[in-house]
Amino acid sequence: MYNKLQTVLPLDVDTEDGKQFSFSGDINTLEFVAAMPASAARLGLQIFKLSLIPSKNNQGKELMVDIKPFFGQSDETSWKEEQVVILKNVQRLHFAYFNADDTKDDAGWQKEWLDKFELPDLVSVDIELMNGELWPQIVVELKVDDVAAGGAAVGKRGRNPFGIVNGKFTSR
């Protein structure tokens, strides 16, 4: 999960409802676009959706990743959507999103990242298992260079990827 989040791509998607950004999430669900590694059977950009689903054996929940091609299906190619359980017996999963731009009102940690046209600077993942075990918090800096962002990363002055806003460390 950590490695995949580091390769998130900031892309605009044209939908029937207008433009939509390729990254969105709330406290329980995260959706983003990233490339699969060359060694994978699936090539190209994929949409990843991480969420909790009820377990089939009623033992907590399962952390599921849905993977589908970013580009639409053509007549010649059959694109399969894939669902993979990456963790079982989960009690709680929480995502949080950090905006380090202290020139904006929403600087700091957010419970959701919806209807925005830029990536957060950090994403944190907290997981608690059914047995009460807490996984170490995962905090990922979304590393997007100017080339991958199509120039979108230019002009992000005032950004600080270390959880500091107005000179103070902030936590949720």
Short synopsis of the structure:
With 172 residues, this protein is an all-beta fold. 3% of the residues lie in helices and 42% in strands. Strands 3, 4, 5, 6, 7, 8, 9 and 10 form an eight-stranded antiparallel β-sheet that branches. Strands 1-2 form a two-stranded antiparallel sheet. The chain has a two-stranded antiparallel sheet with strand order 11-12.
Which terms would index this structure?
172 residues, mainly beta, 8-stranded antiparallel β-sheet, 1 helix
What can you see in these coordinates?
- About 14% of the residues have low confidence.
- The chain is globular.
- A hairpin with an 8-residue loop joins strand 9 and strand 10.
- The longest helix is centred in the first third of the chain and has 5 residues.
- It has one domain.
- The strands form three sheets. Strands 3, 4, 5, 6, 7, 8, 9 and 10 form an eight-stranded antiparallel sheet that branches.
- The chain is mostly beta strands and 172 residues long.
Query: How many DSSP H or I helices?
Result: 1
Largest sheet: 8 strands, antiparallel
- Give the low-confidence spans: 146-169
Mean pLDDT rating: 78
Radius of gyration, taken over Cα atoms and rounded to an integer in Å:
17 Å
Q: Which percent range fits the helix content?
A: under 10%
Assembly state of the chains shown: single chain
User: Structural class of the secondary elements?
Assistant: mainly beta
Give the N-to-C terminal Cα separation. Answer: 21 Å
SS elements, strand count: 12
User: How many individual domains?
Assistant: 1
Tell me what portion of residues adopts beta-strand conformation. Answer: 35-45%
What is the ordering of alpha helices and beta strands? HEEEEEEEEEEEE
User: Per the principal axes of the C-alpha atoms, what is the gross shape?
Assistant: globular
